[in-house]
Design brief:
Length: about 130
């Protein structure tokens, strides 16, 4: 397995949109419900939808990475998870921690485009979910 493929599998992006849709759907639903009551331009709505989708995907991927880091000693004993990159040794633990930092930082960067309340709530959510 190539290193790129191993990182790709670590983030579960090879299973997209499974998992991601569980995070994206409520966010986009709430955005569109808010837009119904407080109309915004189509461009702004599309931009915000894309940012929600990207942010949700990054956050889901970060959650998958921290899950694999924490469960690496157990995943080898489970048929469904025994071939994950950290279990097989395709990736070092340090690489997973670096990837987690990159994903979390990218998600935090996206939050800088929101209002202060959303930013603080988002930071709490990231730290609560990832750590």
């Amino acid at each position: 397995m190539s290193v790129f493929r191993a990182y790709f599998e670590l983030t579960r992006l090879h299973k997209f949109p499974l998992g991601n849709i569980l995070i994206i759907w409520p966010s986009v639903w709430g955005l569109y419900m808010a837009a119904y009551n407080h109309p915004i331009t189509s461009t702004s709505l599309i931009t915000q939808t894309v940012m929600f989708a990207v942010g949700s995907t990054l956050l889901h991927s970060a959650a998958c990475v921290i899950n694999d880091i924490c469960d690496r000693n157990f995943d080898g004993k489970v048929e469904r998870t025994k071939n994950r990159p950290l279990v097989t040794g395709a990736l070092p633990i340090a690489g997973a921690w670096i990837l987690l930092s990159v994903l979390t930082s990218a998600t935090m960067f996206l939050l800088t485009f929101t209002n202060p309340t959303a930013y603080v709530t988002g930071i709490f959510d990231i730290l609560h979910c990832d750590f």
